[in-house]
Amino acid sequence: MMSLLPSLPTIVALVKIGLLVGGLMTAAAYLVLVERWMAAWVQDRKGPNRVGIPLTKIRLFGLGQPLADGLKIILKEDFTPKHVDKVLYVAAPLVLLAASLAIFAAIPFGSSLPPIPALGLTGEEPLLVAPGLDVGVLWVFALSSIAVYGVLLGGWASNNKYGFLGGLRSSAQLVAYEIPLGLGLLGVVLAAGSLKLDAIMNAQASSGVWYAFAQPLGFIVFLIASFAEAARLPFDLPEAEQELVGGYHTEYSGIKLLLFLVSEFLHMVTAAFLIVIMFLGGWHLWGLTGSGPVETWMVALIRFAVLSAKIFGVILFFMLVRWSWPRFRFDQLMNLAWKVMLPLGLANLVTVAAVEEFRPQLVTALGEGGAKAAAIAVPWAVFFLGWIAAGLLTPSGTDNTPIRTPGPLDAEHVLGSRPHDLLEA
Amino acid sequence: MKPSDPSITWLEEKPLGLAERLYLPLFVSGLTTTARHLVSPKVTVSYPDQRPKVGNPLIYRGVHRLNRDQEGRVKCVACFLCATACPAHCIDIVAAESPWPDREKYPESFHIDELRCIFCGMCEEACPVDAIELTSLLDLTGKSREEMIFDKEKLLSVYDMTKDAEPMKSTTMGCTP
Asked: What is the DSSP string of B70-111?
């Protein structure tokens, strides 16, 4: 009988998956509310504040809104147009959601729990679904590329020109921005010496220098590229409501549309997780969380709270940016990716590689503290130089003015084309 | 207009300065604008809990009322000017001989179809005795079409309801105090 029960690691993994998926889905629902609030506040409105506990008059500042929104979209007709490719049409949102959720297998959502001997957990329990995965960063990037398939399939299966254009734009944009994203990430991996995301956080905690300070250029490149990867404004060309009527999800309705929208929010959450874990120190905060192993529940909770607060802050920044800048034109988007972000990413990578290579020599020449300062000062110098060079060298604009001096073939130079020419003749 | 027309003045786009090409000042100004609006006072009126403020009740065109004179009688003299002026033909008056010595006619019945009315205020303009007026009541609702056809008693009751908050607009021609 005992042998039929799953083993302890399996139970622990299942519990973590349950917590993570439940938490993510709830978070996605509430982030919709936060996004609507932010949109309203930026536009000097109040936003949703009426829906509270159902069947009562209690309003709770509108915290019941996600329930109402969810029920509404689930109960809507799930309409499948006649002209779509049925199999791919159904598969697209599933692929997208599955990929967006599976990414979180390798993303730590806290530091770790102290040992719980009562349950037979003798060691520290990392808050990570797949703690043994040595290729965490690769897993995250591989799956976020698969998520692009969902968008592409959706656009293709819709058999609709807006959907198709949205899919095309999305593929071009994501291919272009995976490169700066990868370059920003390579610097971090090089400095931390590990592809495990929890090891990257530990490296920042033990040195006390977050990679945002040690690699400012990499941070900026990664930040901008992750906005583009999450297809948030000012990079939301794949779904540009005004041009493409929603882009790849034009033909979707009901629960399939819900899956698309939830995956979009999950993309943003993933991007926020990666930014915080790789550049903003993860669960680390000076003087509050410590940097050693987790011994008490207090430390575990504080680290979890710090990580969550940072992620929430980054998400709020994402939402604020949405209302701050207009969308790029497609040529501007491509210029930015290939002519600005790619060289800057390469410059960051070379700087980090050089600093890491010559760190032993720096320590012997300047001492421990001096080497630490130099390892921060050099990337910042490269950051300012690179930024100014990018500003000076990139084309400042496109000339869109009409032709003012007509050529010989333009209408008014052809003899007798104007009515008064005919009269004079 | 042709691009070569001499009356066109062509304005050149200013070349971007160093600060603009670095994008940082624009980045900061964009964020500060949105952040300022994020915390600025909101313009939304939470409607049923909070009444919207009517700018100037004298020129607001809401629900009609029929005014009463000092003796509490309907002021209307059934001259049909409002019904004639009405572009939506929503006023229906049946005139009868007046029981009072100071006028010849009075409205035996007076109906306004509030669903047909376009709230243009022409009836108020046309009335020679300032009997019909538009109040600043803005949320007019009903459960049936019949309910939305206001008769004389209902229009007079609108006057009774609003006379304290909104005195009669004209100060001449025997207004109520």
From this structure: TTS-B------HHHHH-TT--EEEEEEE-SSTT-SEEEEEEE
Give strand ranges (E) for A103-194: 112-113, 125-126
Burial of B40 per CB tally in 10 Å (0-12, 13-18, 19+): exposed
Instruction: Judge if pTM exceeds 0.90.
Output: no
CA distance A283 to A364: 32
Residue A425 scores a pLDDT above 80: no
Residue A323 has pLDDT above 80, yes or no: yes
Other C-beta atoms within 10 Å of A276: how many?
Answer: 25
φ, ψ for residue B172, nearest 5 deg:
-95, -175
What's the Cα-to-Cα distance from B24 to each of A212, A335, A387, B28, B126, rounded to whole Å?
18, 18, 10, 6, 62
The pLDDT assigned to A112 comes to 77
Helices (H), chain B: 18-22, 24-39, 81-85, 122-126, 152-162
Instruction: Kindly indicate the confidence band of residue A130, based on its pLDDT and cuts at 50, 70 and 90.
Output: confident
Q: What is the DSSP string of A282-327?
A: TT--TTTT-SS---SHHHHHHHHHHHHHHHHHHHHHHHHHHTTSPP
Across chain A, mean pLDDT equals 83
d(CA A209, CA A385): 22
Answer whether residue B174 shows pLDDT above 60: no
Query: Do the chains contact at A324 and B21, CB–CB below 8 Å?
Result: no
Of the partner residues B4, B13, B44, the one whose CB lies closest to the CB of residue A405 = B4
Instruction: Please name the helix (run of DSSP H) or strand (run of DSSP E) that holds residue B66, with its range, or none.
Output: strand B64-66
> What 3-state DSSP class applies to A243?
helix
Indicate the SS3 state at residue A113. Answer: strand
How far is Cα B93 from Cα B84, in angstroms, rounded to an integer?
11
Which residues of chain B lie closer than 8 angstroms to A42, CB-CB? 34, 37-38
Which element (helix H / strand E) includes B134? strand B132-134
Q: How large a percentage of chain A has pLDDT more than 90?
A: 11
pLDDT surpassing 70 at residue A123: yes
Name chain B contacts of A387, Cβ cutoff 8 Å. Answer: 22, 24
Q: Please give the Cα distance from A70 to A72 (Å, whole number).
A: 5
Burial (Cβ within 10 Å: 0-12, 13-18, ≥19) of residue B151: middle
Looking at CATH, the fold of the domain delimited by B64-162 is given as Alpha-Beta Plaits (3.30.70)
Local structure of A170: helix, strand or coil? helix
pLDDT tens, B147-170?
Answer: 999 999 999 999 988 888 888 876
Each residue's pLDDT tens digit, A48-83: 888 888 787 888 888 888 888 888 888 988 888 888
Yes or no: say if A301 and A288 are a contact pair by the CB < 8 Å rule: no
Q: Does A38 touch chain B (CB under 8 A)?
A: yes
Measure the CA–CA gap between A202 and A197, rounded to whole angstroms.
Answer: 9
